[in-house]
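ok so I'm stuck.
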Amino acid sequence: MADFLGTQAETDIVTLSDEERQPCEIWTRVMGYHRPVSSFNRGKKGEHAERRFFCEDRLARD
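replied:
not stuck anymore, here's the structure
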């Protein structure tokens, strides 16, 4: 296992059981403040799923 400074060897593999895992909560910015997507109603969740994200690399190449 890693110590406080994170000196874990790269070859170590950490496996977790299902009981040890926890869901990753996604947050997004809405109207100037941040909210978890899990608190959205059905319509807002659908809108969030359809969003397109800005990609600087693509813009720079064009």
